[in-house]
Structures are given as C-alpha cells and as structure tokens.
Amino acid sequence: MIVSFLRPPQPCKPALLQSSVKQQVEAIEKQYISAIEKQAHKCEELLNAQHQRLLEMLDTEKELLKEKIKEALIQQSQEQKEILEKCLEEERQRNKEALVSAAKLEKEAMKDAVLKVVEE
C-alpha cells in the first residue's frame, strides 16, 4: 500500500489517482492521529496511576514517621521525667541534711545559752 504512494501516477487517470492517493493519505493520517491520541491517553492513565501509588506510599511513610516521632517523644519525656525525679530526690536529700545540720547547730546554740544562764 505504501509502495503505491511512491509510484508516479499513471498518465491515463491522473486526477482520479491523485484523489485516491490523497484520500488514502488522509485516512492513514487520521489513523495515526487516533493511535497517537489513544497512546497518549494510556500514558496519562499510567501516569495518574503511578502518581496515586506514590501519594499512597508517601502517606504510609508519613504515618510511620509520625508514629516513630510519637514514640521518640514519649521516650524522651520519660527520660526527662526520670532525670527530674533524680534531681528532686538529690535536692530533698540535701535539704534533709541541711535541716539536720541546722537542728544540730540550733541545739548546740541552745545548749551553750542554757549553760551560760546556769553559770551566771
């Protein structure tokens, strides 16, 4: 069929052959355009499907990362709580020791005051 396009028109019916060739060329062009449009549509559908899969993968990854961040924050909070409790316990112990020391000093001061009063 394509080979017939390459042959020069025969002299007996040039207008009829030219018209026939032109119609065939137009029909082939329409088929090519239609095939290209179908292929473009298929490509667009594939691209949309890939895009949707990518969005789903990103959503899944986002949820996993949210969960990991949540777990890390909980762990960090627990560690900070433990550190704070340790610091509070150390502060309580220092306060207790300071109170005991202050009580001893007060006791000694009272004892000295009583002895002084008794001696006078």
TrEMBL record:
Source species: Pongo abelii (Sumatran orangutan)
InterPro entries found in the cross-reference section: CCDC91
Keyword Coiled coil: yes
Any GO BP: Golgi to lysosome transport
A GO cellular-component term linked to this record: cytosol
Keywords: Coiled coil
Domain of life: Eukaryota
Protein name: CCDC91 isoform 1
